[in-house]
Amino acid sequence: MMQWEKLLASGRFDASKKHLPLKDSSRTEFERDYDRIIFSAPFRNLQDKTQVFPLPEHDFVHTRLTHSLEVSSVGRSLGKAAGEFLLKKYPSLQSLEIQSSDIGAIVAASALTHDIGNPPFGHSGEEAISDFFKHHPYGIVWQPHVRIQEWDDLCNFEGNAQGFRMLVSPNNGLQLSYATLAAFTKYPRPSQVFQRDKSRRSQKKFGFFTDQLKDFEHLADVLGLAKINSDCWMRHPLAFLVEAADDICYSIIDLEDGCTLGLVRFEESIALMGDILGDKFQPGKLEKYPTEAQKLAIMRAMTIGKLIEECVAAFEQKEEEMLKGEFDKALTDIIPSAPALSKISNLSIEKIYRSKPVLEKEAAGFQVLEGLLEVFSRALNHKFYQTELYSGKDKSILRLLPADFPLEGWGAQVNPYPLLRSLVDLISGMTDKYALSLYRKVKGISLPGA
């Protein structure tokens, strides 16, 4: 059984596996996590990455950045309320000088990063990267040179695993606290597992790539995260709150965006949120707000508040089972409002996620990311592995790579997995607009300065 005293252990993650001491500060270590993330380049890039709808012609449509800030806000509320419960139940935590605001700060910081590994063009970007290695000739060409587990990583790009990679990378210099990093990791398993239990939410996806296995093992050892089997670990209990914050926000706020864009009728949106509010919903009081946008905003705020209350109650009920690894579901699947959330999800799939603007964005994402991966992968392969094909065009393409891209030490006898990971890091870290601009240039569709 996991122990909160260890799950909330102080110290910062370092790739060298050293336990970094904390320095005296007016901020707690978890507040420092939040600040480091806010000022990091990967987080700033989220302002130009699609959430659901193509990057906005309308200023009210959410980007990954605004979505992440909102999820973090909800996460802080969930974490602080859960922290008050934990401090009452486990008085020993107070002797460690842990406060409810610390729990709130952990969840807020983890929630802030929950989409940090997502590539351009949303989830279609994940599929585009995976499909390149599965199906494209200059993706498949690498398969004989890498190990089976590594090939699994490349053919199954996962934003959560990419996020973990970015958060532990020395290049980004974040060195987050152990607790924040563990709360971020909703899927504590690698891409290839011997035995996956489909009934466990934490095994639905994977949370780290093959070359980050040692990093996660170090994290799990420090915090006492228990193993379920030879491949999979139990979730840190606060990861359930991070997941709930995301579930709440994308369910309600995507519905609000869809309504604002005219994809969902206003009356239908109000009724769906009213189902969650139940007795708290008083339609007459909405009439004092003159615009539909204001009415939607007040309903959204009240609905999110109700869902936070329900998720905190569910966390309190299941907390001991989480510590034992006996509970492994989404909190939003077991709360009283779960049926209403399911109705919103079904409607969102039908009217929002399959709407023409979203499908057009996804189609563009496939074209752009496949095109970028193709030109860079071909040039790298020709330079190091099919050297007889290396051309002037390949040389020009490789000159476009950043100065710190690892272009030394590769060859036919060298496993290129680290090289390919660096290429995927580069492409997945791009913003939507930069990826589109670079694609047009390398394909000769537009010229610099044109």
Please provide a written account of the structure:
By secondary structure, the protein is mainly alpha-helical. The protein is built from 21 helices and no strands. The chain has helices at residues 4-7, 29-38, 41-44, 64-89, 92-95, 100-112, 122-135, 137-140, 148-155, 159-168, 178-184, 213-223, 238-260, 266-277, 283-286, 292-324, 338-353, 356-384, 392-398, 417-428, 432-442. The mean pLDDT is 90.
CATH superfamily of the largest domain: Hypothetical protein af1432
Largest sheet: none
Structural class: mainly alpha
Residues in helices, as a percent range: 55-70%
The count of β-strands is: 0
Mean pLDDT: 90
**Approximate shape:** globular
Number of domain modules: 3
Rg, alpha carbons: 23 Å
Q: Architecture of the largest domain, CATH level 2?
A: Orthogonal Bundle
User: What are the segments in which pLDDT stays under 50 over at least 5 consecutive residues?
Assistant: none
Which band does the percent of strand residues land in? under 5%
CATH class group of the largest domain: Mainly Alpha
